[in-house]
Amino acid sequence: MEKLNWRKYAFDFLSIFIAVISAFALNNWNDNRKDNIAEAKILKEIVNGLNKDIEDTFINIKGHQAGMKACSYWRALICNPEAKHDSVGQYYLNLTRDFVSIQNSSGYESLKSKGLEIIDDDSLRFEIISLYEYDFHTLKKLEEEYDEMQFNSSHFKELNSIISKKLLFDEDGNIIGIDLPMLLSHEEENKFLSNLWKIQTNRYFILAFYNDIEKRIEKIIARIEEYH
Q: Are 96 and 199 in contact (CB under 8 A)?
């Protein structure tokens, strides 16, 4: 009789143990499934944001390239009296034009609120964090806060004091050309050329940074698409 009771209790205990373990496993599976769904949703949101970031990056790259061409244009007017001088107004506008850095970070903010560890792949998680916390942050600093890159506030006044004397306007006040040759004093010419050199050098630097970030964005997008 005692042996039969022991077997009954053992069976009941085993049944309860299996039920608890099964419930725990099911609950754990549900949690993992929810995390996987949330991970996929957040990564998709990040990819959508990064695709928009590439578009914004492209616009800024083209803007800085136009600024570099403007430097070459104005340098040519000083160093080569026979240089072409059409589209003066556009080159005048592009010379010291600044840009802002726009990041579509809603996906990354969702990731932070959900918990960074929701991304299982450690290297992918690190790359995403590095892009948003370092690369994008540095780019924003360069474009909007670093004095060397604030072309309008740093260079426009000096350059305009020379350029504005030579600009030609129509009756409506629109720029239509420039009075050539420039005929600058040695001091004015050196001041003009040194400002152009500094603008062009700094634009070259930030373009190299943009090029690096663009590659990192494309790499992360490819990794996410491969990951899911």
A: yes
